[in-house]
Design a protein that fits this description.
single chain; Immunoglobulin-like; 5-stranded antiparallel beta sheet; 17 strands; about 40% strand; globular
């Protein structure tokens, strides 16, 4: 009898396995992307996804209260998936979005619908549970790899076309992940016409590395009364001393930060026309 009790306890614990978070992830406020060089992929989000502040934001090491229940409901228990991140954006829509990596190659897709565009596709299924509306998006990529995007929101906030923001993220992530090279370790936006962009370069401040495996280079365009983030790169010791860029003519502020976002050094750059 004791043997059967021990087996039951073991099986119960196995079925309740905690959700592990994928290691090697990086998220930088103001940048609409999550980077994971270890997994060799990016996941695109919105600009209003900020670091967790105790109430809202993007978590890379702990779940929101409802996450575990929702994940199990759609068939993603802890033994089947790891979590990249789970987020509650800063806007008033008050929805949740979590992205997970499948640990097993097979997932039952009965009842799922397919969205397909020219160069990409994904599967999705809608569920209602406990006054929540849930959409599970399944994106295949690589050699039989999958990620899940799990969106949920209260029914009373589920207004006309409520999946519009999720659908955009699902489309762009499917398109990018299903490319031959789904990862890049930098992010950039420009605020001038392409014909005005000119070549430039930054001399990397090597002292920022010390014993750090990775640091963040953040560049801000300087305007009359504010500044806006325009370039980010994950730097390692393998990067060259000089970083070639293509930039709009302007003045820029440069920050070097560690993986905990601590400021290490600052610099400036002026790009003439």
């Amino acid at each position: 009898m004791r043997f059967f009790i021990l087996v039951f306890v073991f099986l119960s614990l196995a079925s309740c396995k905690k959700y592990a978070f994928v290691k090697g992830g990086h998220f930088i406020d103001g940048v609409d992307a999550y980077f994971n060089p270890t997994q060799h992929l990016n996941i695109w989000v919105y600009m209003d996804y900020l670091a967790y502040d105790g109430n809202r934001g993007l978590r890379m090491d702990s779940l929101y209260p409802k996450d575990r229940e929702i994940f199990k409901l759609i068939g993603l228990r802890g033994r089947r998936a790891q979590v990249f991140f789970t987020a509650k954006p800063m806007n008033s829509l008050n929805y949740h979005l979590a992205v997970l990596k499948h640990k097993r190659r097979k997932f039952k897709t009965h009842g799922y619908q397919q969205f397909k565009e020219r160069n990409s596709f994904y599967l999705y299924k809608d569920i209602e549970h406990d006054f929540l509306v849930i959409r599970h998006v399944l994106i295949p990529y690589g050699k039989n790899e999958h990620i899940s995007m799990v969106y949920y929101i209260d029914k009373d906030k589920h207004t006309f076309d409520p999946f519009k923001r999720l659908n955009y993220l699902a489309e762009i992530n499917a398109r990018e992940l299903q490319k031959a090279t789904p990862f890049r370790n930098f992010w950039q936006v420009s605020d001038c016409p392409e014909e005005k962009i000119v070549p430039a370069s930054i001399k990397i401040w090597r002292h920022a590395y010390k014993k750090r495996e990775i640091i963040y280079l953040k560049m801000f365009t300087l305007y009359d009364d504010h500044r806006g983030i325009s370039f980010v790169k994950l730097l390692t010791k393998d990067d060259p001393d000089s970083l070639p860029l293509a930039l709009c003519p302007n003045s820029y502020a440069i920050e070097y930060r560690d993986a905990d976002h601590k400021l290490l050094a600052v610099d400036t750059l002026h790009v003439a026309e």
